[in-house]
Structures are given as structure tokens and as C-alpha cells.
Amino acid sequence: FKSCCRARGQKMELSNLQYGTLARVVREGGLRIAIIIRYSSIPPHLTTAIFSTCGMPFWIFLVAAVVSLPKQLAIVYVGVALESESYAHSGLDSKKSSHVQKGVIAVTAVVTVLSFFYIRRLMIAARPAYIYSRRKARQAKMQEIP
User: Fold this and answer.
1) Predicted TM-score (pTM) above 0.85
2) Closest CA to 60 of 97, 107, 16, 28
3) Per the UniProt record, which residue ranges are transmembrane (predicted)?
4) Pick from 81, 123, 126, 121: nearest CA to 105
């Protein structure tokens, strides 16, 4: 993806304000931002594309993917628990299992929403610098043309 879609990613970065500011946040943020983005409500397939087109080092991507596994496992747990509950009891008390499911859903939702709003706040803060850099690039391009 990195080699095939880098040009497309750069084109989107120049034409789409949201994508451009997110790419800027990713480039400047490092490992901490990569982990937070993986926990946000931004779909994982989109974050993988953004990470690869922004030139994120593989080790940062790998660490962020491994650290964000609990979010993915929570989703899988809830799905399995709901499925097993519809066919037969899983051996646990169904009331206890229900409380665990609700707790997992609540924690996952809170972490997802908080991380999304944090990333959104960083994107809003990066917007003026992104717009300024785009404006300077357009001015330089206009001065090049005879």
C-alpha cells in the first residue's frame, strides 16, 4: 500500500483539509499519537492507509497495532458472548456475563470517544499551520510560473 498509493495519499493530503491535517498530526505525533489514533473511532483500515502514506516507520506501526489489540479483543469478546448466549449458557452465570459485557462495551465506548475527541482537537490545532503551509506552497508555485 505504501508504494502503490503514496502519490494518491499526497494528492489527497493537498486537496482534502481533514486528511491533510490528520496526516500532519500523524507525522508530528510519533508513537503516542499512533496509539491514540488506533484507539479512536477512526476505522483501522483507514488508519493503516494514513500511516503508510505518511511515512510512519514500521516499528511505530507495529507497536501501535499491538498496543491497540485490547480494543479489537473487546469487540470480539462481546460478539462471542452474545453469540454463545443465544445458543446456550457459556458456563458463567448469565447475569454475571451480562455485567461483564456491559462493562466491556462501556469502557470501549468511553476510550474510543475520548481518543477521537483528542485527535479531533489536535487536528483543529494543526489546521492553521496546515493552511499556512499550503498557502506558502501555492505562492511559491505562482512565483515559479513565468
Assistant:
1) no
2) 28
3) 58-80, 100-119
4) 81
User: What residues in the chain have per-residue pLDDT under 70?
Assistant: 1-2, 84-97, 146
- 30-36 LR contacts (CB < 8 Å, sep 24+): 30/60, 31/60, 31/63, 31/64, 33/119, 33/122, 34/60, 34/61, 34/63, 34/64, 35/63, 35/64, 35/67, 35/68, 36/115, 36/118, 36/119
In DSSP notation, 79-145 reads HHHHHHHHHS--SS-HHHHHHHHHHHHHHHHHHHHHHHHHHHHHHHHHHHHHHHHHHHHHHHHHHH-
